[in-house]
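Contributing new complexes? Match this layout with zinc ion.
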Amino acid sequence: MNYDLIIFDADGTLRRCTVPGQVCPNAPDQWELLPGVIETLATIDWGSPSRGRAGLGIASNQAGIARGYLTEELARMMLEDTVEAAAGFRPVAGSIELCPHGTREGCSCRKPEPGMLLRLMDFWGTPPEKTLFVGDMESDRGAAVNAGCDFLWAADFFRP
Ligand SMILES: [Mg+2]
Ligand SMILES: [Zn+2]
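Output block (do not edit by hand):
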């Protein structure tokens, strides 16, 4: 794959909530990886783009924090656990971005705003034309458009 940086949405892309009727997990025992995620990520040589490997990033809207469903610390830990389960390594500090704001706060990070993607490209030192964002919602595609990077639907990226 010809990208220096691949950024993933979390919910509906790497993992799904196991609580019936609930979209996003609010506790560590409320999620599982989606089919095909481990197998696909195992084909990629992860590391630092400065050393010719692919950087990994996470960009996740976590409005449940603003609603009081979970703390930012717990949400971040669960995203780190998700990366470890999916890719087999603990993500480096700075490679996980979450938006803790509510839907009406007008922040610059909640997707489709590009703030999280821009910060991840800055963190890894990767230009948008060498960056891919993988997500499952129209707001994900919009964030990629607004950040100037490529986009793939999770259903296509993880297609067996
Ligand atoms: Mg999603
Ligand atoms: Zn935000």
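Reviewers usually confirm one structural detail per submission. For this one: The domain at 5-157 is CATH 3.40.50.1000 (Rossmann fold).
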